[in-house]
Amino acid sequence: MERISIANPVFKGNEKKYLTECIDTGWVSANGRFVKEFQSEFAKFCGTDYAIACSNGTVTLHLALIALGIKPGDEVIMPTLTYIATANAVKMVGGTPVFVDSDPDTWNVDPAKIEAAITPRTKAIIPVHLYGLSCDMTAIMDISRKYNIPVVEDAAEAHGAMWDGKRVGSMGAIGSFSFFGNKIITCGEGGMVTTNDEELYNTMKLYHSQGVDPKQKRYWHMVAGYNYRMTNMQAAIGLGQLEDIDWHIGERRRVSASYNSKFQDMLDGYVTVQKVANPENHVYWMNCIELTDKVKKERDQVMAEMEQKNIEMRPLFYPMHVMPPYEDKSASFPIAEKIGARGICLPTHAGMDEEKIEYVVKSLQEIICE
Question: What does R_g of the chain's alpha carbons equal in angstroms?
Fold first, then answer.
């Protein structure tokens, strides 16, 4: 079997046509029609009034926290089981990340743990729609309203996932997305921030482009801002991808259905997956498994043996509280620690046909079912 990569982008639509237009017309930087169209169409897709295209996903979180006025001494609650960008963005504004444990079934942040962690210094909540599965936004938004604490949805991995008929990125005060090369749709690198709040939109727009106020004279800067703009070339690719997003999501769901069927047949009792209450909740950025206690080998050994079979795999994210920048040896988050230590991401992309999926699952069976 040829090497099976963990992720491969697919460009099947107008990406090359739009990119060529950028080159032919010379509109390659932040100005150009594709930036405006990508923002407009992405906002429409998410069901929000506004969207701002950015240079990457991390800076969208930074802009969100700036707009919400998070400052040194403020606490921001988030899951410990997430990619480090979520915590880093809080540090970028001088805030303090407050980590909480996961739900054992969904692996997403446990809303009850969020409420228990609230203090007078809590100024924002960042739920992460982990690996493409929407958090319980009903419970989280109930907490938000009860305590008057704004929510920033980290939807970097969950383009198109829904909760109770609403797209992720449209329910909190602000939504944050990534278009890194392995995401559901990609620009190579890039991000998008979404909101329904005009004041938050205007603040993020101001800071995202060096603090220039378009209502003022040229080169007149109102604040010390940042260059977080997306280029027209990135947006051209992103717009082409967005036009086919239903296909991209459908392919990931096809891959997931095939994996799950084979897990039941060949790995029953040896692996568990995220539990999904409603099919619309999950868009399967990654198909992930947690090795159960029946598997006697360590997770990293399993991945090493899969690599010998020419299959690329990744560990789940390490919990924030065990890594050097945020290490807290007194903290205990047993669910996140267990999932983080036993979790594996499987190859998930449109190039995964039935033969490759069968090979991945059979290889796992040979390695873990002893």
Answer: 21
